[in-house]
Every structure is written in C-alpha cells, then in structure tokens.
UniProtKB/TrEMBL annotation, chain A:
This is Glutathione S-transferase. Pfam families: GST_C_2, GST_N_3. Gene3D superfamilies: 1.20.1050.10, Glutaredoxin. Residues 206-231 are annotated as: Disordered.
Automatic annotation (TrEMBL), chain B:
Residues 5-109 form the Rieske domain. Pfam families: Rieske. Keywords: 2Fe-2S, Iron, Iron-sulfur, Metal-binding, Oxidoreductase. This is Rieske domain-containing protein. GO terms for molecular function: 2 iron, 2 sulfur cluster binding; iron ion binding; oxidoreductase activity. CDD domains: Rieske_RO_Alpha_N. PROSITE patterns: RIESKE, RING_HYDROXYL_ALPHA.
Length: 231, 205
C-alpha cells in the first residue's frame, strides 16, 4: 500500500492517522505539493486526473478520495471503525464523511488561503467554515447529553477521523476554536487514542506525554555524535 | 439581574485536569480545573514568553505551559522550570489570578474582590455555551432584559440565559430546568441555534 503524501496536508494526515490507529502497514511516498506542485506532474495526473492528494494505491486499486481511503483501511483492518452495522449508523457515518468534505472546502480552503496563498474569498470561506463548526459543535453536544462524545455512536469511527484534521487546524485559517467547548473535548479524546500520531500543528494530548526535563546539552551531543552522520 | 460576577463557562465543559480559554472584559483567561477538581481563572499569558496557558496541560494541582513546560501552582506562582530542574523559581514569576467561583454548574469570574456570592440558579443546569457574532446589547434587546442573568422563555420552556460580552461579540451560556428530559434539551439546543441565526441576521441587516 502506497500513500502519495504531503506532510502538511490535513487530507493526507487523515489517512496516515487512520492507518496508525489501525496498525496498518503503509508506505508514504512524499509529494512536493508546495512549492514544487508535484501533484500536477504528468506522473501524478496519471494516477489522479483531479490533481489532488492524497492518492492511495494497493495493488491494482487506486483511491483518489481520502474518505474512501478511510473506509478501505477500516474495512480491511478493523470494521468496528466503520460504525455499528445498522442502516441508520452506516448512513450517519456516510453523512459525516460528506460533511468532512465541507470542512475541506471551507476551513481547509481558508487555511490554504492564509498559509499557501490559496484561492478564494477569505470572508466567504470563513463564514462557511463557521457554519460547519457550529453544526459539529451542536452535534457533539447532543452526543454528550447521551453520555457519548464521538460523532457516530459510543466509539470512534472513520467519521471522527475524517473531520478531526481540518477542525484541529482551523486556527491556521483564522478560525479560533475558543467558542466551541464540545469540539475541544472531542479533540482531546481523539488526541488521547491509542496509536495516535501527530502532524505539524496537531499534538498528542500533552497530559499523556512525559514530563519535560532539561534540554540536552547541544555541545555535548555534537562531540559524541557519530562522525559518519556528518558525511 | 446585576452582579459583579461574570459567567465565563459551564462547569461540565471543563472536566477534571483540563484547561480551556475564556475571557473577562478585554482580558483573555485560562480557565482550568486541577486533578482534585479545584477551578481557577488566570490571565491567559505565560510569564515566560507569552504562550496561551489555556493551551497548557494539567498535572495534579499544577497548570503547565505547552511551550517550555514552566508549571504554575494554585497561587499562580511558577513552581518548576524544566530546563533548570534544580532551580527554585523566583517569587516574582507569577500569573495574575482572578477571583473564581463555581455555583449551579456555572464558572463565575470577577475583576477585583466582589462583595457578594455569584447568583444562585438552583433548579437549573448548564445546557450549552454558544458564541454569537453580535454585541450583548443585541441579545438583551431580543430578550428584553438587562444584566448578565436573564430569565426568559425559549419556546415553551422557562430558561436562564447568561449573557457574557466576548470581545465585541457575545457568549450565551444557556441553563435549562433540571427537570427537562432529553427530547426537551435537544429542542432547546435547536431553539438556541435558531435564536442565534435571527440575532446575527438582524445585527448584520
Ligand atoms: N479529493 C479530496 C482532496 C483533498 C484535497 O483537497 N487535497 C488538497 C491538499 S490538502 C489538494 O490536493 N489540493 C490541490 C488542488 O486542489 O489543486 C480528498 O481526497 O479528500
Ligand atoms: S512560554 Fe510558557 S514556558 Fe515558555
């Protein structure tokens, strides 16, 4: 399984995170999205004519949509992540996957605008993102009234993993998360999951990290370093 | 109803051993709860390099900054600097601490030392905090009341709306009667969303 991957892309991180939570083996093939625009190279366009990343290949299968990749990974490794096998729950999960693409095109586009000079009217993007974040906040608060926190039932599913990256990175697009208490608590639960991995700007719950100690002495590190590493 | 206390959060949104952002007037707050359940509201600025302490983490009875891990005790004083574990941090390294009380499931903060206790809202429990992109005046107008504690009707239900200035916007902390069942709470949440849409539509009209 090969993931055509870009470290700063929330959509790629969705897939890396899901694979890590499932313990699925996957090879990351870095794509120089910025500034190289390698996602638009002839080789990448042959894989994905839409010119977006991530792309996931597994043998003869090529997937071009990150939420489809989440479904594929979960179905292959631990179907519990697909949500309870009832018509209502499967539809609820599908609805959240579609919702997550609303986050991509609003909060994600606002972030791309602010960080990578992406296109779009920033006020329109932020307004659309705010509506989506409010919808998410309301839904999680409803889950909390039922003693739950995840989007589709009592345990995390691909719905949570699809929505999490763009929400967590929303502040990069000028969308502070201060007004959303339920979203904050939901993100804490995801950041505390076994197998959780980080990306730049998204961290494992700090409470679960070791207590910070003194910084290593750089001079000492230098003199003891294997000279071959400098070659 | 008037009070020197400002409602800044609902208790259930700040579980044990966690920190959350808030504000009072123009001051950003780090509202946090220790492992033993003690609530506190501090200035949201780490004395070291100004990182937001509301992004920090709680261990035991201390709040630590995520940037370089300086940790602060109950009185706001710095207790540990990880880069210098043998140093006793000087008394002068201190986060400004605000008066903070918890009553009826609401976290109240005050500037200075208020004389009375926060309002008693017995019989109600916190439902949701909603951010509204309109000044508090616009909300008071809709509800036809004054002050931060408004007893109003939302649909058929008598609720309490706690109105907090959030910069030039508003945080609405909604309290529902304790006796409400789940379906009613869901309906109140929907009604609050609709109310917000109306207030914002009017504010921008
Ligand atoms: N098909 C979507 C695309 C995700 C997406 O928008 N990816 C961004 C990078 S984060 C991208 O490739 N943008 C390139 C473009 O739109 O030209 C998915 O897999 O979720
Ligand atoms: S800024 Fe808080 S510890 Fe350095």
């Amino acid at each position: 399984m090969i993931l055509y991957d870009y470290i700063l892309s929330p959509s790629c991180y969705r897939v890396r995170l899901m694979a890590a939570l499932l313990g699925a083996e996957m090879t990351s093939r870095p794509v120089d999205f910025h500034p190289g625009r390698e996602h638009l190279s002839p080789e990448m366009l042959a894989l994905n004519p839409a010119g977006t990343i991530p792309v996931l290949t597994d043998g003869s299968l090529t997937l071009r949509d990150s939420t489809a990749m989440l479904s594929y990974l979960a179905a292959g490794h631990d179907p519990e992540w697909l949500g309870e096998d009832t018509p209502a729950m499967r539809a609820t999960v599908a609805q959240w996957l579609a919702f997550s693409q609303r986050l991509t095109s609003s909060a994600g586009a606002a972030r791309a605008h602010d960080m990578l000079h992406g296109p779009g009217d920033i006020d329109v993007l932020r307004r659309a993102a705010t509506l989506a974040l409010r919808e998410l906040e309301a839904a999680i608060s409803a889950q909390r009234r039922r003693g739950m926190i995840f989007l589709a039932g009592p345990r995390p599913t691909i719905a949570d993993i699809a929505c999490f990256p763009h929400v967590a990175l929303a502040p990069d697009g000028g969308l502070p998360l201060d007004p959303y208490p339920s979203i904050r608590l939901w993100m804490r639960e995801i950041r505390a999951l076994d197998g959780f991995i980080e990306m730049p700007g998204i961290h494992r719950l700090h409470e679960l990290k070791p207590e910070p100690g003194p910084m290593p002495d750089i001079r000492q590190t230098r003199t003891t370093r294997d000279p071959k590493q400098n070659a | 109803m008037q009070t020197d206390w400002t409602p800044v959060a609902l208790s259930h949104d700040i579980p044990v051993a966690s920190a959350a952002p808030g504000r009072i007037g123009d001051t950003a707050l780090a509202i946090w709860r220790s492992a033993s359940g003690r609530i506190a509201a501090w200035s949201d600025r780490c004395p070291h390099r100004g990182m937001r302490l509301s992004h920090g983490y709680v261990r035991g009875e201390r709040l630590s900054c995520i940037y370089h891990g300086w940790s602060y005790g109950e009185d706001g004083g710095c207790k540990r600097i990880p880069a210098h574990p043998d140093l006793t941090p000087p008394e002068s390294i201190r986060v400004p601490v605000f008066a903070c009380r918890e009553a009826s499931g609401v976290v109240w903060v005050a500037e200075g030392q208020p004389a009375g206790a926060p309002p008693d809202l017995a019989g109600f429990r916190g439902l949701r905090s909603l951010h509204i992109a309109a000044a508090t005046g616009a909300i008071a107008e809709v509800f036809g009341g004054d002050g931060p504690v408004l007893r109003v009707k939302l649909g058929p239900v008598a609720v309490i709306a706690l109105v907090q200035a959030f910069g030039d916007e508003t945080m609405l902390h909604l309290m529902a009667p304790e006796s409400c069942d789940l379906a009613t709470l869901d309906a109140l949440s929907d009604a609050a969303e609709a109310l917000r849409r109306n207030i914002e539509a009017e504010a921008t009209a």
